[in-house]
Design a protein that fits this description.
Layout: H1 2-9, E1 21-26, H2 43-59, E2 64-70, H3 78-82, E3 86-89, H4 93-102, E4 105-107, H5 112-120, E5 124-127, E6 152-154, H6 163-176
Helix pairs in contact: 4-5
Length: about 180
């Protein structure tokens, strides 16, 4: 079904083409807080992931742009902004979804909004898988425990991930540019 979703998404538009690698970082805020670790990811963890991605892009001397999409105030993301991440806060949800879908690299939040974007995206997806068990979750939440695909890179709770796996996928993105 995923190829069909992608086909329908692009029925009235062509995939975006740029010379730079685009990195979209979706951060779930607004409806979650640090008191809800099942859906909340700290800025420190996100910064760890972004720093590793930036390091690998810099090593390959690739032009890139990193945008963060979330809700909140600039002060909530000061550490990420100081690291050169462009902030898009409280933006239109449909525009944000398009930015996530069409990014070359999508660093996902723990939630359905990121997941739906990732379904249609043909870019690299970095996500934190979660093992769910028992009856304390709805059947529709099973996506959170899915195994990675060929364009997905699972990350750990601290934001680290398999750099070799990411590099292999990054080479394909760079070659396509």
């Amino acid at each position: 079904m995923i190829p069909e979703f992608r086909r329908k998404y692009y029925l009235n538009k062509a995939p975006r083409t740029t010379d730079e690698v685009t990195v979209a970082v979706h951060v779930r805020r607004g409806d979650v807080s640090a008191a809800d670790p099942g859906y909340f990811t700290s800025n420190e963890t996100i910064l760890q992931t972004v720093t590793a991605v930036r390091s690998m892009l810099d090593a390959r001397k690739v032009n890139y742009r990193i945008g963060l999409y979330s809700q909140g105030k600039i002060a909530d993301f000061e550490d990420l902004s100081q690291a050169g991440v462009e902030l898009f806060l409280d933006a239109d949800a449909l525009w944000t979804m398009q930015e996530l879908i069409e990014a070359d690299i999508l660093i996902m939040a723990k939630g359905c909004f990121s997941y739906y974007a990732a379904l249609i995206s043909d870019g690299i997806k970095i996500f934190e898988p979660e093992t769910l068990s028992g009856d304390d979750f709805l059947p529709s939440w099973k996506w959170r425990s899915l195994s990675p695909t060929e364009s997905s890179v699972p990350c750990r709770a601290d934001g680290s991930f398999d750099h070799a796996l990411f590099e292999r996928q990054l080479l394909l993105v760079i070659q396509a540019k």
